[in-house]
Design a protein that fits this description.
The structure is a homodimer of 226-residue chains.
Chain A lengths: L8 H13 L13 H12 L10 E6 L2 H22 L3 H6 L10 E7 L16 H20 L2 E5 L4 H7 L7 E9 L9 H4 L8 H4 E3 L16
Antiparallel strand pairs in A: 1-2, 2-4, 3-4
Helix pairs in contact in A: 1-5, 2-5
Chain lengths: 226, 226
């Protein structure tokens, strides 16, 4: 069967390169992101799918240095809380670099909009599909950034109520990500948490079943009882 | 500044084409998906980022015709429930095509794995980041499918408890998507819900703020009070 809608080979390669060479970046080097590049990355997010076309994503670009520092402190506080909760893996966790908030070129907080209860299409029984949609938007941004040669990290080490208050956002809005963007020395070959031995990559055979759930035998590493 | 990590122009174009020409497809034409193409699409999902590298995604490929029909009936039931909840937009909603479960080549249910409470990294204060990760995986699959010329639709019209029971999945596992994949006559120029007048596209100015939340003036259409 002819695949008349398939992309030509070089464009297809670009899509797969972005998918496989995207990294959750925590190390940045100096240098601003050109405004047109940043706009292309944000616009890529706006082209994401959304449940009932609600487009629940909102972005707050952080430009005040003092505000960025407050956001860093929120993440650092949560990093310590998480470390304490991890028990025997505490020291291993603390050695990992988990944010790039201070050193990246741009910090953008992503929030779900307020008044989301108005949207019922695809959400009556699945209200959390708003988060799913906004996550697709961030993945678009991640892949666009990779194609542009820009690193992006998604930091979720924060208390959402405190971050909401810092941004003076209404109670109905919900912060879901602190995105760090910037130039990089390199994109790692493998995910940092894989290289560091935190966990291992799951293959198709570990996660793909047919017709009914089979508890995967290889689906968990021996390190997952955090 | 040289963008030494940026993709060459044709590969970059591929990434942006996938992002902008991806559609939430509900109309399929006959024809199986080649196994190697389907595998590439699934593997693209497995390359997604995940919080604490937990890789919470699980896939159940539906091959029994009777099971597919039961899944269709679940979606159809929820479609009627949603229509009733929509009030004055009920008829408008019912005219929209909201699934392609019966006619697509492949149905794949995506679930979050069980035992997710074991994972704390990035989830102590933000437990729902597991859904965010799996949504990134689905977006990867969506873009890979587009590059392959394959349409994909994400159906969230279902009761997750009933779908879990159909697949004999454990209580801790959580269905998040019925994915419909198949060949298409065409990819629409614009999202179906935009063409149908359900809602309008939000531009950057509608959703991007600086340093603090500003309630967007253009962020809501006049049709959003569902």
């Amino acid at each position: 069967m002819p695949m008349e809608w398939a992309f030509p080979a070089d464009q297809k390669e670009g899509v797969y390169r972005a998918i496989y060479e995207r990294r959750d970046v925590r190390h940045f080097k100096a240098g601003a992101i050109a405004e047109e590049v940043l706009n292309r990355i944000i616009d890529a997010g706006l082209a994401a799918p959304s449940v009932g076309y609600m487009q629940p994503w909102r972005f707050v670009r952080i430009q005040q240095a003092s505000l960025r520092e407050e956001i860093f402190q929120l993440a650092e506080h949560e990093r310590q809380q998480t470390a304490a909760a991890l028990g025997e893996r505490k020291e291993e966790f603390l050695r990992l670099k988990t944010d790039g908030i201070r050193e990246c070129a741009e910090v953008i907080v992503v929030l779900l909009c307020d008044h989301r209860e108005r949207y019922i299409f695809g959400r009556r029984s699945m209200p959390h599909m708003d988060l799913a949609s906004a996550s697709c938007a961030i993945q678009n941004m991640w892949l666009a950034a990779r194609a542009e040669g820009i690193g992006l990290g998604w930091v979720s080490l924060f208390d959402p109520d405190e971050l909401r208050a810092l941004l003076k956002a209404p109670n109905g809005a919900e912060p879901i990500a602190i995105l760090c963007l910037g130039h990089v020395e390199r994109f790692d070959e493998r995910p940092l948490l894989e290289t560091a031995g935190w966990d291992s990559h799951r293959e198709r055979a570990d996660v793909l079943m047919t017709d009914q759930w089979i508890t995967p035998t290889a689906g968990y590493s021996d390190k997952d009882s955090l």
